[in-house]
């Protein structure tokens, strides 16, 4: 003897799984009937005619191979299976609505994740204001951060491990990358507090000749060190590159320890690092551009919103005296 459930299983085997033939509308129709316990009111709630609704519920029962409603009762009553399906239908409907809302938020750039690569000195400059403005506008977007050298930012963009980078200096031009100059800062000298050059309120350019310097990796390009060395070299000034530091924090630590002088963006002076004095150069010939860089084909809506904030920030910086 084959019961209704077995017959349904046989049909599912022959024609595909039951779940593959059920649609969200079946659950929506059933939920309306189960909650109203009246076909007429359920049809009005769904804005459809009653006969097609009754037919859809019959089809659902046939597909499942179970009775969901006791139709002889007044009002209608749910069977045990019907009560279980109502409970699950509510949960599925809620999960589906949540998924739709989440997808729409991601599509509007109000949710999702944004991976940011940055030169350490960016945190002393424009980046904190940009991040705070973005967090206020899109608080549900998860931000992740990786401190990188300029050359590493280019590589990270190529491998899609970051969405946007803040590079100092800008990257080598590439047809796949967009760049936007945010700010150009003068470079100043960071020196140990007991260094002989602390006697100067501004360091004469010629006094930098043959100074022992703590610098950043020169290669691969681009690098801030190469920018400094080439500019000073064009003026007949050579540095003794005695120590290499991967990031600005390490460089300042080595300066404080007396390893030599270094060159940092003027905004870094706000760090007030113990054991380090920051002194401008005269004449000012060294400058450091801070550039936002991203892939041209990145379709992230969160990135689009982030770039809008960068554009607004750039406009404000350009308008400021």
TrEMBL record:
SUPFAM superfamilies to which the protein is assigned, alphabetical: Periplasmic binding protein-like II, Winged helix' DNA-binding domain
Keyword vocabulary terms for this entry: DNA-binding, Transcription, Transcription regulation
InterPro entries: LysR_HTH_N, LysR_subst-bd, WH-like_DNA-bd_sf, WH_DNA-bd_sf
Entry keyword DNA-binding: yes
Disulfide bond in keyword set: no
Domain HTH lysR-type residues, every copy: 22-79
Family: Belongs to the LysR transcriptional regulatory family.
Protein name in the entry: LysR family transcriptional regulator
Lineage of origin: Bacteria, Pseudomonadati, Pseudomonadota, Betaproteobacteria, Burkholderiales
């Amino acid at each position: 003897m084959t019961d209704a459930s077995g017959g349904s299983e046989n049909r599912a085997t022959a024609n595909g799984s039951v779940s593959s033939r059920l649609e969200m509308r079946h659950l929506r129709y059933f939920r309306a009937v189960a909650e109203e316990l009246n076909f007429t009111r359920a049809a009005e709630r769904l804005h459809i005619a009653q006969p097609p609704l009754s037919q859809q519920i019959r089809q659902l029962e046939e597909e499942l191979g179970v009775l969901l409603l006791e139709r002889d009762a007044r009002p209608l009553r749910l069977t045990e299976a019907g009560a279980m399906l109502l409970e699950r239908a509510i949960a599925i409907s809620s999960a589906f609505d949540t998924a739709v809302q989440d997808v729409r938020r991601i599509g509007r750039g109000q949710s999702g994740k944004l991976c940011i690569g940055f030169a350490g000195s960016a945190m002393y400059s424009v980046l904190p204001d940009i991040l705070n403005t973005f967090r206020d506008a899109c608080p549900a977007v998860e931000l992740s951060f990786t401190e990188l050298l300029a050359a590493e930012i280019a590589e990270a963009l190529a491998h899609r491990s970051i969405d946007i980078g803040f590079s100092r200096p800008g990257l080598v031009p590439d047809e796949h990358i967009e760049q936007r100059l945010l700010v150009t800062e003068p470079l100043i000298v960071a020196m140990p507090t007991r260094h002989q050059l602390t006697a100067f309120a501004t360091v004469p350019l010629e006094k930098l000749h043959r100074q022992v310097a703590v610098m950043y990796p020169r290669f691969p390009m681009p690098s801030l060190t190469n920018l400094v060395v080439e500019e000073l070299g064009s003026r007949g000034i050579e540095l003794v590159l005695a120590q290499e530091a991967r990031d600005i924090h390490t460089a300042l630590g080595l300066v404080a320890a007396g390893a030599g002088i270094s060159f940092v963006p003027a905004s870094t002076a706000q760090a007030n690092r113990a054991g380090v004095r920051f002194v401008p150069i005269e004449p000012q010939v060294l400058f450091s551009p801070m550039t936002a860089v991203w892939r041209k084909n990145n379709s992230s809506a969160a990135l689009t919103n982030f770039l809008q904030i960068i554009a607004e920030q750039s406009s404000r910086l350009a308008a400021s005296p």
